[in-house]
Amino acid sequence: MTRITTAKTAGFCFGVKRAVELVYDTAKTSRTATLGEIIHNADVVRDLEEKGIRVIDRPSDAEQGETVVIRSHGVEDSVFAELERLGISYRDGTCPFVSKIHDIVRRCSGKGSAVIIVGDKDHPEVIGIAGSSETAPYTVSDRKSLDALLDSEPGLAKKPLAMVAQTTCNIKVWDDCSAALSKRRPDAEIFRTICSATSQRQQEAAELAEKSDIMIVIGGRHSSNTRKLYDICSSFCPECFLIENASELNKIGLLTSFSDKCDISIGVTAGASTPAYIIKEVTNHMSEKLQNDEEFNFEEAIEASFKRLYTGNRVKGYITAVNDTEATVDIAGTKQTGYVSRDEITDDPSLKPTDVLKVGDEVEFIVMKVNDAEGTVALSKKQVDERVGFDKIVKAKEEDAVLEGTVTKVVKGGILVSANGVTVFIPASQATLRRDEKLDDMLRKTVQFKIIEVNEQRGKAVGSIKVVLNAAKEEAKEKFWETANVGDKFKGEVKSITSYGAFVDLGGIDGMVHISELSWNRIKHPSEVVSVGDELEVYIKELNKEQGRISLGYKKDEDNPFTKFVNDYHVGDDVDAKIVSITPFGAFAQIVPGIDGLIHISQISDKRVSNVKDVLSVGDEVKAKITEIDEDKKRISLSIREVLLENGGSADEGEETEE
Predict the structure, then answer these.
(1) Pick the CATH number of 314-380 from 3.50.50.60, 2.40.50.140, 3.40.30.10, 2.120.10.70
(2) Which CATH number fits domain 385-469: 2.60.40.3080, 1.10.1760.20, 1.10.3720.10, 2.40.50.140?
(3) 379: helix, coil or strand?
(4) Cβ pair 318, 324 in contact under 8 A
(5) CATH fourth-level superfamily of 562-646
(6) 3-state DSSP helix/strand/coil percent for the chain, to nearest 5?
(7) DSSP string over 420-481
(8) Are the C-beta atoms of 39 and 275 separated by less than 8 Å?
(9) Residue 498: in which H helix or E strand, if any?
(10) How high is the pLDDT of residue 529?
(11) 138 has which bridge partners?
(12) pLDDT the model gives residue 261
C-alpha cells in the first residue's frame, strides 16, 4: 500500500506569501512591474505575466505610471536610492526577516566591523544584504571557505567581526561556521538570522525523509531554500526527486510505478516559494484523484487553501507593521490581514505598541472579530497573555510567591496592577503600610505583591502589597537589632511628623528624632525644620529592644551655637543685643541666633530700676557688656550698666543689690 505524507510546513512562508499578495493587490489599482522575479517559482511568475505584470531588471526599465514591487529577497540600498532619484512609485515586498538582516549589517558596518555573510554570493537575497553594508562584506558558503577567508585576510584579525546568515541557509552549514568563528574569534558578533520557518521546514523535511522510501521536493530549481531542502532530504533518502510541478512526475516515472499492492512510503515537502495549489496538485496526481476538467485560477487556488477564522480562534501571525496606535499582522494560513489595537497589545499604559512588538515577530493572538467583507480580522494579544498569565497567577497563589507588576490605574477602593498580562486588583487597605500614603503616588511604579484571593471561574485575582512590605519590614527589623549599636550613623527618609518629633525610616525600621534633637534653636514644631520625604543624616542615641524604640540624634556638636559663641566672644566684650523676653528679675537679650544672655534688673541702667518694663521692651536693641560665661551651665550674663558707666554715667546711692 502506498502511503503519501506531506510535511506540515511545506509551501509558502510568511515573507513569500506577503510579497505575492502585495503584487496582486498593487495590480488591482495600477500597472505593475516586479524588480526581478518576485519569488523563485516559474508557475507564479507565469501567472503574473499573464495578468500583465512585467519583470524588470533595474529601476530605469520601469515605464511611465508603472508601480514597481520589490521582491521578497530584498535589494541593495542603492536600488532604493535610484528609485527615489527617478521618482518611480514603488512598494517594498522585502521579507521582514531579510530587512532585519539589512539593519544588522548597516549597524555593524557603520561602527567599523567587517561583515561576513554565510550564503550564496550570487543569490538575490545575499546581493541585497551585501548592498546594505557601508564597507565591502565577505561572503562564504561553508566552514571551509570561512577558514580560507580568515587565513588569507590577515587584516581581519585587527578588525571587529560580525557574521550573519542568508535566511535560507542550511542549518548544519551555519552551525559549523558559527562554531568555527567563535573558536577563532570569541569577540565576533554572531547573528543567527536563519528564518525560523526555514529552520522548522528543514528539520521537518529531514525527519520525513529519514522514514520515507521516496522523497519529493517541490519548488523552483532556482530557489535557494528549495535546493537546500533537496540537499538535506537526499542525505537521508537516496530516492529523492526535485520537481517544479505535477507534470514532472511523469518524467521521473513515479505515476506509473504506484499501485495498491506497493508497500511504499512517499514523503512530500516544498520550498517557501511553492504555492499550496501546486503541492495539492502533486499529491492528487500521485493519488490519482486530480480533476483537470476546469480551467485553473491561480488566485482562487491560493485563496481556497487558506483556513477560515472565527471569533475566539487562537492563531499565530507575523508582525508586518507596527506604530504608536496599532500593529498589522499576517495571520498564518489565511489570506486575511489582522490588526491589533494598542489596547489589545498590552494593558500597561506606559508602553507603546513599538515597545512590545517588532516587525517579523511571530506572536499568538485571539480572534476578536472577523470582517469578511474587508478581509480584516481584529486580534488581541492581551487576551492570550491573560490566559497564560493567569495560570502563573494561580501558581503564585499556591506557592505563596512574590510577583512583580506595574500600577496601571487608581480606581475606587484601590489600584490595578499589571503582571504577566493579567490585571490584579489590590484594595487600598492592602496597597500601603500607612493610611496617609496617597495611592496616586503609586501610579506607573513597579511594585511587589502576593496573591491573596483567586476566582478562576471569573479570571479575577486580588493581591496585597502590604504583606510583602510587612515581611520585608520584619526581616529588616531582625537584621537591624542584630547589628545596630549606639552611635551608628544612618541616612534615612522622614516618613511622618508629630508634635513631639519626626520618624525616620532607617531601612525597614523607624526611629524617632525628638523635637529637642532637631535644632539647637528653640522651635515650636518639628515642621519648622523638616518635612516628610526629607533625607536626614542621623545617629542612634538610645536603643530599647524590649519596647522596640530607637531614639535618634540629628543635631551635630559642631553646629552648637554655644560652642561657636565661646570661640568668638569673651568676658568683657561689648555686644549688640536684642531684647527677646522680660521677667520680674531682668530681661533676656539675643546676642546671636540661638544664644541669649540675662541682663539682671540691677544691670539694666546706671540708675535704680524698680520695674524692668519701665526701661525695656521686647524688640529693643541695646549695647551690653559680657560679664560672665558659664560654660558648664551654658549661661551668659550681660550688663548695660557697665557700658553706661564706661561712657561717663554715675551710679545712684543705695542702688538695688543683686538678689
Answers:
(1) 2.40.50.140
(2) 2.40.50.140
(3) strand
(4) no
(5) Nucleic acid-binding proteins (2.40.50.140)
(6) 35, 30, 35
(7) TTEEEEEEGGGT-SSTTS-GGGGTT-EEEEEEEEEETTTTEEEEESHHHHHHHHHHHHHHHH
(8) no
(9) strand 489-498
(10) 87
(11) 116
(12) 43
Q: What pLDDT is stored for residue 377 in this prediction?
A: 87
What is the set of active-site residues? Answer: 125
CA 246 → CA 13, 218, 242, 532, distances in Å?
20, 9, 11, 81
Residues 6+ apart with CB under 8 A from 417: 405, 406, 407, 408, 423, 424, 425, 426, 447, 449, 463
Residue type, 210: E
Q: Which residue bears the cell 507564479?
A: 44
Q: Where are the domains of the chain?
A: 96-194, 214-298, 314-380, 385-469, 484-559, 562-646
Decide yes or no: CATH 3.90.1150.10 for domain 484-559: no
Q: In the prediction, which pLDDT does 656 show? A: 43
Q: Please state, in angstroms and rounded to a whole number, the distance separating the CA atoms of residues 503 and 494.
A: 6
Domain 214-298: CATH class, spelled out: alpha beta
pLDDT < 70 stretches in the chain: 1, 253-262, 288-308, 333-335, 372-375, 557-558, 649-659
Return the exposure string of 291-326: e unless at least 16 CB atoms fall within 10 Å of the residue's CB, then b.
Answer: eeeeeeebeebbeebeeebeeebebebbbbebeeeb
The CA-atom distances, in angstroms, between 129 and each of 95, 116, 138, 189, 561 are 12, 11, 11, 17, 76
Class of domain 96-194: alpha beta
The DSSP symbol for 247 reads G
**Taking the C-alpha atoms of 512, 514, 519 and 522 in order, what is their torsion angle to the nearest 10 degrees?**
160
Using an 8 Å Cβ cutoff, are 202 and 230 in contact? no
Do residues 432 and 466 touch, judged by C-beta distance below 8 A?
yes
The dihedral over CA atoms of 145, 149, 152, 153, expressed in degrees to the nearest 10, equals 170
